[in-house]
Structures are given as C-alpha cells and as structure tokens.
Write a structure and sequence with these properties.
It is built from 33 helices and six strands. It is mainly α and 838 residues long. A hairpin with a 2-residue loop joins strand 4 and strand 5. Helix 13 packs antiparallel against helix 14 and helix 30 packs antiparallel against helix 32.
Length: 838
C-alpha cells in the first residue's frame, strides 16, 4: 500500500486537498496553538456557532450538543465569509423576540468568534476557497525571503571557519590583555551581535557561538600584525582598523608569501574581517551589507582568494592560455570529433552536446596539470590528457580535494578516451579496442562508472520535491500571476506580465509534458514546434534530442491540448514584442540589471533559475515552505505519479514521450516506495491463465463507481442522505490519515476493530493483528491522528450505531453493506477516489 505526504497536509494544513466544511475548519482549529493555549473558549464558540446556524435556516432542535457537528458538516466554508454580520443579525433578532443575551455572555461569544475567524483567515487555504473578487489582479507574489537570501542565510548559519589554524603564526597573535577597554567591550558586543537569536540590527540569522569564539583568534591575528609590522600601539588599535580592505590585503599577502599560509586559511581570515565590518556598520540596508563600501571591497577580495583555492577555485585551462602547439592540436581533435567525414574516426561524428562535455573534460585535465601540478604552459600538450596516470591524478583531485562525485570523473574519463582515439588513427577496429591505451582508459572508466553507480545521490531532493498535485497548484498560481493588475489594483508593466506569461507556459509544459529542458529551450516555431488542427506538436530529428544517436530515430509528441490556447496567446501576443534574429519560442526577457540580454536564447542555467525561482515563489505563498524544483525534477514527479496511479498500458508510451525507455524511467525517475512497488503483486497466485485481462482493459480499481455500496443510505441506522454523507466523510478522513502513514496493508486495515484503537489521555495507539488474531505490533499515533480516529468513532455513536469493541473500525456506508466490514479492495478504491484517479 502506498502513502502520500500530501494527504497529511490535507488533514492538517493547506496542502492539495483542502477543508471544505465549517466542521473541517472547526476540527482543525481545535488542534491549533490558538485553541490549545485557551481551550476554555470551546463552549462559547459552539454556542456562537449555534446562534449563527439558526440564521442559516437550521432548526433549534437540530442544533443540540450531540447534533451540532452534523450541522456544521453541512455548511460550506465559503458561507462563513460574513459570519460576524450574520452573528450580529441573529443577536438583534433574539433581542427583539425577548431572548436577549447578557452583555458579559455576548462579549465572551464575540471574543470566541473573533479568535476562530482570525485563525481561519490566517490560513492560506481559506482565501483560495472564497470567490475571487478581482480576477484581473495577481495573488500575493512574494512571501518572506528570496532564493538568494535563503542561500546566504544557510551559509551564514552553517559557517564554521574550518581553516583557522595558527601553526607558524602564533607569535603574531596579540595578547587580549593588551587591548584597550573599548575594544574589549566592543568584542563582547560583537559576540552578542552574531549569536543572539533575535537582534534588530543584524541582517540574517544568528551564527553558532563556537564559530564566533573561533573568529576571535583571527581578530587577534590582524591586530597583532598591525602591532608588529605597522608599529601601531596596542592601546590605539580599533576594530575599524582591521576591516580596511587595502590593509587586510597586505596582511594576507604577507602571511601567504612569508609564512606559507594557504589560500583556504586566507579566505577564513577575510570572512572574519567581513563579520567585523558588518558589526561595525549595522546601518546597512541590503541583507548582505554589500551597500557598505568596506564590506563590498572585502567581499570582492574574498572572491579573488577563492579563485586561488585548491578546493573551490578555478582550475580549468582557458582557451586564451593555449600555446600555438596546443591550438594546433585542438583544431585537429575538434575536426576528428565533429567533421562530417573523418576517415581516422571510423564512426559517425558526435553531437555538439557530447563534444561540449569532452571540451570541459580536456580543459579540466590540462588546467589541473598547469594550476595544481604546476606544469609550465609550454609543456602542456593535448596528448597528456590520454595519459592514464594523469587521468587518475585528476580523479583523485576531484574526489578527495574538491569533493565532487564520480559522475564528473566519468565524464573526464570519456574525454580522455576520445583524445586517445584521436592519437591512434592506426586502429583497425571501430571501438579502437586494438589500441592498448584506449583499452586501459576504457577499463578505468568502467571502474569509475561502477563507483558512480554505488555512490548516493548528491542532490537534496527534499528541497526540490513536489507532488504532482502540488505542481498543478503551482501552475494555477502562476497563471493567476499573469494578471494585468497587481494585488492593489495598480497596472503592472508589460515586461512583468510578459515574464510571468513565459514562466507560466514553461512550467505548465514541464508539469504536463516533462520533456528535457533542452527540447523546450530550443523550440523553434515551424522548426521543431508546429501548430496543427488538434494543437501543438513537437517534431525532432535524431540530432535534436539526447537519445537520437543511440536510437537512430527522431521524436514526435503532442503538447497537452489544454495548453494550446495559452501557448497561442504567448506566441501571438508576447513573443513578437521582442524582435530577434532567431525564431526560438522562449527567450531571455531581460532584467533591470541586464537589459541588454533581452531576446537572447535561454541557456541551461537560465532555464533552471527561471523555473526554480518561479516554483520557489509560488510554493512560499501556497505552502509556506518554498521548494526549488528544477526542470529535471519534473520528470521524477511525472514518472512517479504515472507509476503510482496511471494505467499500466501507458508506461511504454509515456516513456516514449519523455525520450527514454521504460526501464530507464523506472530506474532513474520512479520514486515510489518499496511498498508501493511490491503492492501490485498482492494475491498474484489468484491470477489464472484464462482470467488474464486484455492489455487494453482498464485496471479493476480504476472502474467508475468506486464504492457502489456507499452510494446508498444506511437504512439500518435510519439516517438521512445528508447524515450518511457526513458519516462517510468522517470514515474516509480517518482512513486517509492511516493510509498516509504507509504502515498498514489493505488486509491489516480490514482486520481492525474499534477495540484495537486505544486512548490513554493524550496517548493514542493502534493494535495491528495477524490473520489468526494474534497481536503483530502496536502503532503509536500522533495526537492529531488519534483525535481524528476518535472523532470518527464518536460520529458513529452520534448516528445511533451500537458500537462495541468487536465492531469493524472501517465499515461500509452503503445499503447493501449494512454497516459491515469493508473489503480490502474497497479501501483501495476509496483512496483512489480521493486522489482523483478513479
């Protein structure tokens, strides 16, 4: 059985599925901090709601204590929009009829109502349920911090200054006792400034106390340098002196050249100088204080030092550094790889994207030789790239020093192999495996590939992951963000609207047709993208897609038809506003900082930043938890959703749409849980050869009429249709929270009795039994989940059911089921119904 985090979000927060009724909101309010801090308001709130419901047409008899929840379950959340006015009208009507309420009681009722509605209006999902008054206005576009600031805050919180060691420099550090009292006092304030949890003048989050304590040694070093090498009296030293950029540069240069300190050490010292400069200039307006000249200059100096660092600095050779012999070799190698016909190559030319990877590898290997191994440029030759010992040295540097994964090492290996083939035109075999040099590199590349296969993912997918339902909400939000007016009703610039439309269309395509971003970036109207009678089609020859060389065929696929109108609007209305010398559908729309880029083609980095930035802003507004979902991650979202809920017969076609095989889709992109992947094998032995379904027949759990019995009333309890719906919703809600735990199989859910659910004050648990009735395990439930299960049982009792310990926990609510135990298949159909799949 599979689970989904979005269902827990539905139950507790503002995720994909949202509360629909006043009862849903009331139950959520009862587990909110506002309620838990003052639970005594409950009686007043329930009385207030009764008064309001009377004005909505409910009879007083139906609003008794045990029936109030049933009535709240019949009121849509949108009906609460004017609840304060309804309450006032009801109170006035009571007074006219002689049923006046005392002033004290009225104050208590109004206070409870204000608390409830104040909490409700703070929930983001509530505003989305209300009718939009201004469809031509954007929603809220920015919440909290942007991607750049979040990244900067994360770096600040995690900074540990690991390279601040003082071997060979201890004689320079000043004794703190020599400092004047003003500096000592300010250093104490410096520590509080950076470590206090909340402080108004600081930009960004606090830092670890041990990091700030560690930074003091760098301050003592800088002051010691001024004392020893500048002749400054210790009593005259100030914090401002050690932040002067030119003086810090001289100090660092002396330590590196005279005392053989590393550039890693130098970068940490400059970081401390920046911390001191930010402390001395709290008036900064920008979050990273770059509007302060001293901080800006020190940040630039830090960037120059980072370029020289062995672990993070630039190491690839630049084309401008090529000597004449190297240029000549490179031209010959490029011809070998790309020329339409090169006899010594023995195979078709490689595509431009593959050669780009080879170029990166070759420049990296040559740069490692020159910058890290200190080989003079005059001795750097292209032939060195195919030296196996050189390749192994580069890989050790990448993995051990720069902490990169083996994926980059594999690319370097392929680049070296290409150079080895170029060096050996005498080979008689297509794969050059009669050449020992090529064979040795190929064996080493196979080793690197195995290492790459065994290492864990280096991506933080949790920060990028969206469910498909959340991705759909992001698309709808981005469509609303294309409105001509901002949220205040002021006109937006045409450039802003154009940028919003482009990102909306791109994210829509990625959501519903998650092809590789390159295919979207390189869409050319009437070149690869064609408008036909049934919508847009993409047609690629084998050179225009990644797998073309291997498959030896092109690709052709439709874009989702529901996007046709919006893509028409983009192409006909906005794209012509930017004249270009190319016909690419999507372009750089420019910015205030770089207006000259307007109209240029999008590169890979542009596309990634565009999509991740848009999703970040949307999810910050929608879910209060921003995600930086990149274009490639949409392929994971789509494959997982299709494998989890889609039709099996679509797998091959869906893989064709994405441009790879079914096997690759499952191996690379499918993020189903292990339980979900094995669930399809349940009761495999019951499948008889003559009972096998035809490939075109839909899966049984997808058939319409997901639970036929639930469409009828519970005649044995004498419930109305409305009460029956309320009971079914309570049951499904309890079932969904247990399913989302991913701890219970269908059969285990079916065997649950009411007596298996236990409560001791605020501790809730569920006893899971084996088929023979023996206890298998006990699940501890969070209070929120336990209260939902308890609420479901309470509803059954309110419906006059004779509930005992032996009663099934989950029962059918249909006429034919007569309150009997649900079958395992019914659980699955109920889940699929609520997921919107059936």
């Amino acid at each position: 059985m599979g689970g989904s985090c979005i269902l827990l979000k539905y139950i507790y927060t503002d995720g994909g599925m949202k509360p629909e009724t006043a009862l849903d909101a009331y139950n959520l309010f009862r587990v909110s901090p506002e309620y838990l801090q003052n639970p005594s308001i409950d009686n007043n709130l329930r009385t207030t709601l009764r008064i309001v419901l009377e004005s909505l047409g409910f009879q007083a008899e139906a609003l008794k204590r045990e029936q109030l929840d049933l009535c709240l379950g019949q009121v849509l959340l949108s009906q609460l929009q004017q609840i304060e006015e309804v309450f006032d009208t009801s109170v006035a009507a009571r007074q006219e009829s002689g049923r006046s309420i005392s002033d004290g009681a009225l104050r208590n009722y109004r206070s409870a109502l204000n608390r409830f509605m104040g909490w409700l209006r703070d929930q983001r999902w509530y505003s989305t349920l209300l009718p939009r008054e201004h469809e031509d206005r954007t929603p809220e576009l920015n919440v909290g911090k942007g991607r750049a600031r979040i990244a900067d805050d994360k770096r600040q919180k995690e900074e540990i200054l690991p390279f601040l060691t003082w071997n060979g420099l201890k004689d320079v550090l000043i004794n703190p006792d020599q400092l004047n009292s003003e500096v000592t006092t300010r250093l104490e304030a410096y520590g509080q400034f950076w470590t206090t949890t909340e402080i108004g003048l600081r930009k960004g989050p606090p830092m670890q106390p041990k990091t700030i304590q560690r930074s003091l040694s760098a301050i003592y070093f800088l002051m010691g340098y001024f004392k020893q090498h500048r002749g400054t009296n210790a009593q005259d030293l100030t914090l401002e002196m050690i932040t002067a950029p030119s003086d810090v540069m001289v100090c660092i240069d002396w330590a590196v050249t005279e005392r053989q300190q590393t550039y890693c050490w130098a970068s940490d010292v400059v970081k401390v100088a920046i911390l001191v400069a930010k402390f001395c200039n709290p008036q900064a307006k920008h979050y990273d204080s770059r509007d302060i000249p001293t901080v800006k200059a020190l940040r630039f100096f830090l960037g120059e030092i980072r370029k020289l660092r062995e672990d993070v600095g630039e190491y690839s050779l630049q084309f401008e550094q090529f000597t004449s012999p190297l240029r000549k070799d490179w031209a010959a190698f490029e011809h070998f790889c790309l020329a339409p016909e090169a006899p010594e190559r023995k195979s078709p030319p490689i595509n431009a994207e593959t050669f780009k990877n080879y170029r990166e590898a070759v420049l990296g290997i040559l740069g490692w030789q020159h910058h890290i191994e200190r080989v003079p440029l005059e001795e750097v030759r292209l032939a060195n790239v195919a030296d196996l010992n050189v390749l192994k040295g580069v890989v050790a540097y990448l993995v051990n020093i720069r902490k990169t994964g083996y994926g980059r090492a594999v690319n370097f290996g392929y680049g070296a192999m290409a150079v080895a083939k170029w060096l050996n035109p005498q080979s008689k075999r297509r794969k050059f495996d009669d050449i020992e040099q090529v064979a040795d590199i190929r064996d080493y590349v196979n080793y690197l590939r195995e290492q790459h296969k065994n290492e864990g993912s280096r991506q933080n997918l949790d920060a990028k992951r969206l469910s498909f339902y959340e991705a759909q909400q992001v698309v709808e939000y981005l469509k609303r963000a294309c409105a001509p007016l901002d949220k205040y009703g002021d006109e937006r610039s045409q450039d802003a609207i154009m940028a919003a439309w482009q990102v909306y269309v791109i994210v829509s395509i990625l959501t519903y047709c998650p092809v590789r971003q390159k295919e979207i970036r390189e869409m050319v109207l009437n070149g690869t993208l064609f408008r036909e009678a049934d919508g847009y089609w993409v047609k690629l020859n084998r050179a225009q897609h990644k797998a073309g060389k291997k498959s030896r065929k092109g690709r052709e696929y439709p874009l989702p038809k529901h996007l046709t109108e919006d893509l028409d609007y983009w192409i006909e209305t906005f794209r012509p506003r930017v004249p270009t010398d190319h016909d690419l559908v999507f372009i750089r729309t420019g910015s205030r900082r770089n207006p000259a880029t307007r109209g240029e083609p999008l590169n890979k980095g542009d596309m990634s930043d565009l999509v991740a930035g848009a999703v970040h802003r949307a999810t910050a507004v929608l879910f209060e938890e921003p995600r930086d979902t990149t274009p490639h991650v949409f392929r994971r979202i789509a494959v997982t959703f299709q494998r989890r809920y889609g039709r099996p017969e679509q797998r091959e076609a869906f893989a064709e749409l994405l441009g790879h095989t079914v096997r690759e889709a499952d191996a690379t992109y499918n993020e189903e849980t292990l339980r979900e992947k094995s669930q399809a094998a349940e009761d495999w032995w019951k499948l008889k050869p003559d009972a096998r379904k035809a490939p075109s027949e839909p899966d049984s759990v997808m058939l319409k009429g997901w639970v036929t019995d639930d469409k009828q009333e519970l005649s044995h309890l004498g419930l109305s249709t409305r009460q029956n719906d309320y009971l079914r919703k309570a049951r499904d809600r309890a079932l969904l929270v247990l399913w989302a735990l991913q701890e219970l199989g269908w059969a285990e859910l079916q065997r649950l009795n009411v007596g298996h659910f236990n409560r001791e004050e605020e501790d809730y648990s569920l006893v899971v039994s084996k088929l023979n009735g023996e206890v298998d395990r006990v699940l501890q439930l969070k209070p929120k989940i336990g209260k939902i299960l308890q609420g479901y049982i309470d509803v059954r009792k309110e419906c006059k059911e004779d509930v005992s310990a032996e009663s099934p926990l989950f029962m059918g609510t249909g006429n034919r089921s007569s309150g009997g135990r649900l079958f395992p298949g019914s659980f699955q159909r109920i889940i699929l119904h609520h997921l919107g799949v059936a």
